[in-house]
Amino acid sequence: MRPTGAMWPIRSFKFKLLLYFAIVALVPVCGSYFGFETLAKRHETQKVDSRLRADLRSAVAGYSQQLDTAERRADVLPLVVVLPRIRAGIDPRDLLVAVQDGRIVAGPNRGAEIALAPGAPERTVLGGTRYRGLLTSTLAAAGNVQFAALAPERELAAAYTAARWRIAASLFAAVLLFGSLVYLLGLSIVRTLRRLAEAADEIARGRLRERVQVSGRDEFAQVAGAFNRMAEQLEQRLIELEGERRRAHEVTLGFGKALTVTHDVELLLRVIVETIVEATGAFGGFVEGRKGELARAGDPTLDGQHLELPLTVGGEFFGRIILNGPGFDEELEETASSLAAQATVALENAQLHRLVEWQALIDPLTGLANRRSLEESLAEEVARAQRLGGNVCLVLADLDRFKAINDKFGHPTGDRALHAFAQTLREVVREIDSAGRWGGEEFALILPGTDAAGGVVAAERVQDSLASRKIEAVNGEPVHMTASYGVAALNDAGTLEALVTAADEALYQAKRQGRDRVATAARITTP
Ligand code: GH3
Ligand code: MG
Ligand code: MG
Fold first, then answer.
1. Are 134 and 115 in contact (CB under 8 A)?
2. pTM of the entire structure?
3. How far does residue 441's CA lie from ligand 3's centre (Å)?
């Protein structure tokens, strides 16, 4: 527990309680003390007064008796003799004196004046000692005699002091008793509060299993109960948060991994929409591209709230993700946007990857497949033909005297001519055929399911098409260009290597035979 006010330097609640109690209790206790003291004083005085009255009654009665006896003997006794006789009925603590005309005539302090009014007890001083005294009225039948009973004030004072001590002791005992009760009460409150504070500290340290013992049904028990319920809620919430965090972590991890392992755009889009749907708790969602739906997850047709996330890839509009779910707060929208942003990066990477891949397989001058791509295609087709049975025909074409064109018109015109031949190939080949640049001014056609005769037909078609094509040099002059063709089929050659060698040899043969012609190992066709 931390002290909150500088006003109260006392840190313990039980001492504060005790202090409050002392302030609240001391005023009535002091009042009671003075009240009780006055009462006790009066009581002690009354006790002494009635004792004095009893003394005098006894003295007067004793004196009358003595007088009667004396008369019978016809003998008058002096007071000095009578007084000791009647003293027997007097309280041993008191003095008894006989008084005549305001002066003591018998008993202690004989001859001294006594200043007492008859009938009313009063304070008086005799021989330096203070007394409380009571005087009878004059007993007329016995020669103006009065009796006075005297109780020493010292005795009265001692009684007062004893009474005062008794009162003080009782009040002190009462204060002590109540004080102890208050202290114990404070102690029990403080213990409960300390238990609460300790438990709260434990919870603050992350130990959410901590609970406070609830005993009784008072307000403290209610506070403890409320505290326990709060701790339970916190624990529950933390478990939920932990679960959510783990799920988010797994989603992010899986998402990141999925985005890096594939450059397949279709697969990427599916992963993206699935992840965003899961992360936002949506019913479903789909990616809408320029030409329609590209991927979907869950059920986006259910009744719910919509959220649209645009996908801009490489600075261009790619499409948008449309989500449908029970609701999207700011946090969920942020999550979805952040995932969409990551998705954008992955899609950009996929596009770049595709471009690089394309560049690796395409000849940049002609836009046809390059040597590597042609070799891969050829290997694939040969393998398929060998596996399933069938044929593959390879046609190699080489531009005739191309060096001369370069020399005559310059390299840019040579490039133009290469481009024109590539266009010719493109126009002639079927969908399933592949055309590419074999290298320099050499080109290749791969014709699956075609024998050498079919290859010759295709080569002749190219030859015809090239003959009718108008090619212009950079300076506008027409360029006449022919090519020689070597044709070979797998079924004749046997293996891939033999096929290439046979086609090459056939081409060499066509060149030797005079160029602008188609040759197979077996047959040569002339224009
Ligand atoms: P042949 O009829 O025997 O094939 O004669 P040719 O001149 O075509 O053969 P050669 O192998 O002597 O010359 C090939 C020429 O092709 C040489 C080279 O400069 C040219 N060439 C190769 N690649 C390119 C290219 O990309 N652009 C241009 N402009 N010329 C190229
Ligand atoms: Mg050549
Ligand atoms: Mg050539």
1. no
2. 0.50
3. 6
